[in-house]
Amino acid sequence: MDLRKKKMLAGKVLNCSPYRVRFDAERLDEIKEAITKKDIISLAKDYAIWKENIQGVSRGRAKKRHLQRRKGLQKGFGSRKGSKNARNPQKLEWKHRVRLLRAYLKTLRDKKYITTTNYHMLYMKAKGGFFRSLKHIKLYVNEHKLMEPHVKQNVTN
């Protein structure tokens, strides 16, 4: 028994591909007798004809991998595609570091912890890449005694 035409008609009614149309095996006689779209619609309402759901792609494995990577795992050499610079650009690293240093120097200057001449000297050193980090600039300021002496007393109290 060939039901291809019925499947095509049902596909048009159910707004899907005929390959997704399924028939109830026990009610094939009724389906064979259906000629018009109205007949097909009534059979669809009685669940003698239905369309199968589209099979999606599971995200379970991807979610698990994402969770592991958030923990810092699965980031070894075998998982890396780009170069070190592509994954974490040196320019971005530089921008973050310099902005941090400049903000720190600005707060020191605004609160009168350092003089404007010392500020300028430190600013130019930061611009030239002299300081590795915020910790480094703090060490430098303390070692070279660039903080104002009257401010040091106020800071400690």
Number of domains: 2
Overall CATH architecture of the largest domain:
Orthogonal Bundle
Overall pLDDT score: 92
Q: How much of the polypeptide forms β-strand, as a percent range? A: under 5%
- CA distance, first residue to last residue: 97 Å
Would you identify the regions where 5 or more consecutive residues have pLDDT less than 50? none
CATH fold field value of the largest domain: Non-ribosomal Peptide Synthetase Peptidyl Carrier Protein, Chain A
* Secondary-structure element string: HEHHEHHHHHH
Describe this structure in words.
The chain has 2 domains: 4-51, Orthogonal Bundle (50s Ribosomal Protein L19e, Chain O, domain 1), CATH 1.10.1650; 87-156, Non-ribosomal Peptide Synthetase Peptidyl Carrier Protein, Chain A (Orthogonal Bundle), CATH 1.10.1200. 59% of the residues lie in helices and 4% in strands. It contains 9 helices and 2 strands, in the order H-E-H-H-E-H-H-H-H-H-H. The chain has a two-stranded antiparallel ribbon. Helix 1 packs across helix 3. It is rod-shaped and about 100 Å long. The N and C termini lie far apart (97 Å).
Brief descriptors of the model:
mainly alpha, single chain, 2 domains, rod-shaped, two-stranded antiparallel ribbon, Non-ribosomal Peptide Synthetase Peptidyl Carrier Protein, Chain A, 50s Ribosomal Protein L19e, Chain O, domain 1, 2 strands, 157 residues
Sequence-ordered SSE layout with sheet pairings:
Elements: H1 4-14, E1 21-23, H2 28-33, H3 37-45, E2 49-51, H4 60-70, H5 84-87, H6 90-110, H7 116-127, H8 134-143, H9 149-156
Antiparallel strand pairs: 1-2
